[in-house]
Amino acid sequence: MSTRPSLSTLRLVWLYPDLLSTYGDRGNLQVLAYRAIGRGIDVDIVEVTSDKHMPTEGDIYLIGGGEDGPQALAADRLRADGSLPRAVNKGAVIFSVCAGYQIMGTSFMAKGEQHAGLGLLDIHSQRGDKRAVGELAGQIDPRLHVPTLTGFENHGGRTFIGPNAAPLAKVTHGIGNDGTTEGAWAGRIMGTYLHGPALARNPLLADLLLSWVTGSQLVPLDDTWPTALRNERLAAVNPKQLPPDANNAMELM
Ligand code: GLN
């Protein structure tokens, strides 16, 4: 996999903000930009609306959540564009949320019909019995070395992971993929059901994505406020079993 160790400018590509970006998913872009700039890395942001061809030179591609109609349209246009698989072959990172996550898989349901996804992640999505709405928490795959996942979910789909991808987390509160696992990742492609936005609630997940590009660990930032947010949200869903992040705790204000 290619990395850019002497990275001076990080290229962030935000896909289809005209169709997909519910519940503050744009914040993921802002968090990545903020945390890159905090490490002395310049950021170049490209916003690609669904009527435009996307570049294949991005370092990190972001795609958010949305309702069934825009989701199906976005999948059609992404498949017609054909650039995202080429970017992945060049080593790009993808962080996809909810509808965007389902689109990365082989198929998903929208408005009662099955739609083809991009097949970049070994997942497929069906419809669940009831909408999954509310806070979610979970323990992230230990291989990723990221503390407890926290966020907000609102989706009707249920997602099933094949042998070529791994769950992002084990669910301790909420539904996620199927009540047991949440999100998926394989190589540099990651998906999650979480809004919040996800990377504001999980800043070390943002750093993981950045480190996949730079190929090195990043110097820590002052995460006092994100930590306070995390602790408040984690305590709200499970006060007994989910203690505050051990290495950066602060008293709730
Ligand atoms: N339309 C999809 C579902 O309901 C995704 C929802 C979303 O992105 N919030 O499962």
TrEMBL record:
Belongs to the CobB/CobQ family. GatD subfamily. GO terms for molecular function: carbon-nitrogen ligase activity on lipid II; glutaminase activity. Residues 12-202 form the CobB/CobQ-like glutamine amidotransferase domain. Keywords: Cell shape, Cell wall biogenesis/degradation, Glutamine amidotransferase, Hydrolase, Ligase, Peptidoglycan synthesis. The lipid II isoglutaminyl synthase complex catalyzes the formation of alpha-D-isoglutamine in the cell wall lipid II stem peptide. The GatD subunit catalyzes the hydrolysis of glutamine to glutamate and ammonia. The resulting ammonia molecule is channeled to the active site of MurT. The active site is at 98 (nucleophile), 195. Substrate binds at residue 131. CDD domains: GATase1_CobQ. This is Lipid II isoglutaminyl synthase (glutamine-hydrolyzing) subunit GatD. Forms a heterodimer with MurT. PANTHER family: DETHIOBIOTIN SYNTHETASE (PTHR21343), LIPID II ISOGLUTAMINYL SYNTHASE (GLUTAMINE-HYDROLYZING) SUBUNIT GATD (PTHR21343:SF9). It comes from the Bacteria. It catalyses: L-glutamine + H2O = L-glutamate + NH4(+); beta-D-GlcNAc-(1->4)-Mur2Ac(oyl-L-Ala-gamma-D-Glu-L-Lys-D-Ala-D-Ala)-di-trans,octa-cis-undecaprenyl diphosphate + L-glutamine + ATP + H2O = beta-D-GlcNAc-(1->4)-Mur2Ac(oyl-L-Ala-D-isoglutaminyl-L-Lys-D-Ala-D-Ala)-di-trans,octa-cis-undecaprenyl diphosphate + L-glutamate + ADP + phosphate + H(+). Signal peptide: none annotated. HAMAP family: Lipid_II_synth_GatD. Its EC number is 6.3.5.13, 3.5.1.2. InterPro entries: Class_I_gatase-like (IPR029062), CobQ_GATase1 (IPR033949), GATase_3 (IPR011698), Lipid_II_synth_GatD (IPR043702). Pathway: Cell wall biogenesis; peptidoglycan biosynthesis. GO terms for biological process: cell wall organization; cobalamin biosynthetic process; peptidoglycan biosynthetic process; regulation of cell shape.
